[in-house]
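Reading a protein record of the kind used here takes little practice once its layout is understood. Each number in the token line that follows is a code from a learned vocabulary of backbone shapes. One such record is shown here in full, so that the layout can be seen directly:
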Amino acid sequence: MYDEVAICNLALTWLGQKPITSLDDRPLGLVCKEVWPLARDAVLRLHRWNAIQRQAALARLDQAPLLGYQHAYKLPADCLRAWRVVDRATGEQAPFALFARDLHSDAEDPVLTYGAREEDTTRYDPLLVQACAANLAWTLAYQLLGHKAKAAEMAALLNSKLMLAKNIDGLEGEKDPPQEQVSSYVSRRWG
């Protein structure tokens, strides 16, 4: 099981840096502490990871949507990505749209399947740990080292770790809905 410090140390090792003992270590621990939540959440949004899959009944909001749907619902506070809405009244999947932190749908009694912001990294699959560490290393590469070649090396590492983690994770449970290629995610940031 890997905690945040272990994941940061994996990223730092790939960058050729010394390990930290705490996220409060100066200066590397503090940099990791600042960047880690964004690096983690970015990876968690990329795929329908089994480790972060949750379901929740949604609470209806008082205001009605302006156009397109009959009802507005509040998303769970930990929702990083909405995957599917099923109306318990009909048992069928219901179309929906997101507006800010609200979900709009015609479903009368919706249950949302979603990806949660799971901060307990000990719940992650080892391959998800590596993908998160690779994203952290890629994010830190230019910030820490100011070296574009190292950032490009970490981008390649990130792509390979994400591809492997997504493929293995996708073998368990339902198939993932079609998604954009991971490589285009990386190329948009460093293209």
Remarks:
- The chain has two domains: 4-49+125-190, 52-116.
- Strands lie at 53-57, 59-60, 71-74, 79-87, 92-93, 96-99, 102-105, 110-116.
- The first strand starts at residue 53 and ends at 57.
